[in-house]
Amino acid sequence: xxxxxxxxxxxxxxxxxxxxxxxxxxxxxxxxxxxxxxxxxxxxxxxxxxxxxxxxxxxxxxxxxxxxxxxxxxxxxxxxxxxxxxxxxxxxxxxxxxxxxxxxxxxxxxxxxxxxxxxxxxxxxxxxxxxxxxxxxxxxxxxxxxxxxxxxxxxxxxxxxxxxxxxxxxxxxxxxxxxxxxxxxxxxxxxxxxxxxx
Length: 198
Fold this sequence. Notes:
This protein is an alpha+beta fold and 198 residues long.
């Protein structure tokens, strides 16, 4: 009974670890951006600019979980179909936690962090404010801070609201910047942006 409890705890904590692995760059970028550590944020920015890098890391997290499961099954002399059936609780905790952490980051933490870290920008004239709604081809919500940071670097952007999976509502001062200027932002060469109806 004690061994089974230990196995469940081990599977749970390994699942958390393997769920977090692919998002280390995104988490670090968000933290460094919020803290204003621009040098460190720029290091992680270069990784986030490679959209394929994310998919590789996501695959790597499940590969690590699988390697861990194989070692676990070998240690308990259960590396067989029958062993998998006997140890299904541990395996379901391991993979379930890995998947749950990914979903929690994708759908809750990253979207919340993006909108939480938005700067407050003073608006001079509300009559010149306009909104453009963009769909940006980002691989996951962990890349949203990268897009919002780049948008806020443009003079005339007053507010950016992100909503999953790929929607950015950009408020801008039309006396300072145009939709064309926004859509020609350098980052949109890597992550294509398309204007959509609000």
